[in-house]
Design goal:
By secondary structure, the protein is mainly α. The protein has 14 helices and 4 strands. A hairpin with a 3-residue loop joins strand 3 (about 30) and strand 4 (about 35). The protein has a single domain, classed as Hydantoin permease, CATH 1.10.4160.10. Its main location: membrane. It is found in: Membrane. GO terms for molecular function: L-amino acid transmembrane transporter activity.
Length: about 475
């Protein structure tokens, strides 16, 4: 077994070739997270770089892309596209930091481990709680998204709460598969489904006379597509927070790298992932907004009328389910690894291993189901959670990691090169900017919640109301 010696003096097992962790593997390895991996347990190091990139794409390319046309209308086409590209590049930088930090610290599995290294036990608990809660909220949003698709496809055949429950059962069953390697096949289906639904939507709104929400013929209508808009500060920050939320898969990449055959191939996965995600956000968002303008629906899949809405949601449903699966699997595994770290039960199929794993899955899915159904004004509360949690988790902490790692290794000193000093200054400015976005995004979300309550635009807990906009 080839080993690489990291800066901190620890050995990191790496493969001579990608076959060494297949079901026919003949030798055991010791991993910094999973301990001893052999034929007596699940293969927690089975992802190649292509399947890794597909999982990363699915983590990022989900619910966010469905609201991109609305974001472009709020900000205006030109500043909206500029911000989409700029924030995509900024999160690509923090994604890269995650990969380099993981190679330097092979025993890091989540941001909680990063918190332990940088801030001690208190930092570990704070970051663990924030990241777990964030994933639970995203999974809840995924369950609601899947229930929206079922409502659209069935013309609201049953109570929405029942649809959410059905989605929760399906998601729990798939998420219970133990390794990301074995789940990756479903993420392929999900990514293709989401892309197909949005391409179908773009074609549909391009060839039809007018979007579904526009005045019906023969009444005149104007798309009112604007190159530059004039949003208020709160409207602009709410839109920016939504973009950051859409790119906020960064902390999950620690868990994904931990299941790669060769973590050194992570950068190839990252380049493919971010190229697809940024291009998809910009192209699909701009095309749909160009043809629908102010009459774009949110989610966007309902913009082309009742029939095409069913077609688009039918294509998107596997992707919506796949997104919920990933965001239920990852937080369950966070808890599972936390319970059994440095125990033989972590990587061996013992009864304790299996029972605890299933318990983690169903507990996490149950909490996501309750949040999805029990909290009125869920959309605005999710925006608040996104501003409060996703911004620091995908921007602030990673920039601090870069500075801390240079300080730890002695590179942070007055003799640094000019280029390195510029990088540190840029990271410091990004930390300040992310804190500003977090505070103003929370302010915007709280203001929206207050207005909804004031105007009576709330949804009763466990409501049966149709959430597909029919």
């Amino acid at each position: 077994m080839e080993k690489i010696m990291e800066k901190n003096g620890s050995d990191y097992d790496l493969p001579k070739n990608e076959a060494y962790l297949t079901p026919s593997r003949r030798e055991a390895i010791h991993d910094g997270v999973w301990g001893d991996i052999d034929d007596d347990g699940p293969n927690y190091r089975g992802l190649g770089w292509v399947r890794t990139s597909i999982i990363m794409i699915k983590i990022q390319f989900g619910l966010g892309v469905l609201v991109m046309p609305s974001i472009l209308h709020t900000l205006g086409m030109v500043p909206g596209i500029i911000l989409l590209i700029a924030l995509g590049l900024l999160t690509s930088w923090t994604d890269w930091i995650v990969g380099t930090f993981k190679l330097a610290h092979p025993d890091v599995y989540t941001l909680a481990d990063v918190g332990m290294l940088m801030f001690g036990p208190i930092g570990r608990e704070i970051l663990f709680g924030m990241y777990w809660l964030y994933l639970i909220f995203v999974a809840a949003a995924g369950l609601l998204g899947a229930s929206t698709a079922l409502n659209a496809l069935s013309d609201h055949a049953v109570c929405t709460a029942i649809f959410v429950f059905i989605c929760a059962i399906v998601v729990a069953g798939i998420a219970a598969i133990q390794t990301l390697d074995k789940i990756s096949w479903f993420t392929w289906v999900g990514v293709v489904g989401i892309f197909a639904s949005l391409i179908t939507l773009a074609i549909a709104v391009g060839v039809q006379d007018r979007p579904n929400a526009a005045p019906k013929a023969p009444l005149p209508w104007d798309k009112n597509v604007v190159a530059f808009n004039n949003p208020s500060l709160l409207e602009a920050m709410a839109a920016i927070s939504t973009i950051i939320f859409s790119y906020s898969g960064t902390p999950a990449f620690f868990s994904v790298i931990s299941e790669m055959k060769d973590p050194r191939a992570y950068n190839k996965s990252l380049i493919l992932c971010q190229t697809v995600v940024v291009s998809g956000f910009v192209i699909l968002g701009a095309v749909v907004y160009h043809f629908c303008g102010v009459y774009v629906s949110s989610p966007a899949l309902g913009s082309a009328g009742p029939t095409m809405k069913k077609v688009c949601y039918g294509l998107a449903l596997p992707g919506l389910i796949a997104g919920a699966v990933i965001n239920c699997h990852v937080p369950a595994k966070l808890v599972f690894v936390r319970i059994f770290r440095n125990s033989r039960h972590l990587s061996k199929n013992t009864p304790t291993h299996i029972i605890t794993w299933l318990g983690c899955i169903f507990t996490n899915v149950s909490i996501s189901f309750i949040i999805a159904e029990a909290i009125p004004v869920f959309g605005n509360l999710l925006s608040f959670a996104g501003a409060f949690l996703s911004t620091p988790l995908c921007l602030t902490i990673e920039c601090m990691m870069f500075i801390w790692e240079d300080w730890r290794t002695g590179r942070f000193n007055r003799n640094m090169s000019i280029g390195r000093k510029i990088l540190h200054a840029a990271n410091f400015l990004l930390i300040l900017g992310s804190i500003f976005c977090m505070i103003t995004g929370m302010w915007a979300s709280i203001d929206a919640i207050r207005n909804d309550v004031k105007n009576g635009n709330t949804v009763a807990p466990f409501s049966c109301a149709d959430n597909s906009g029919s």
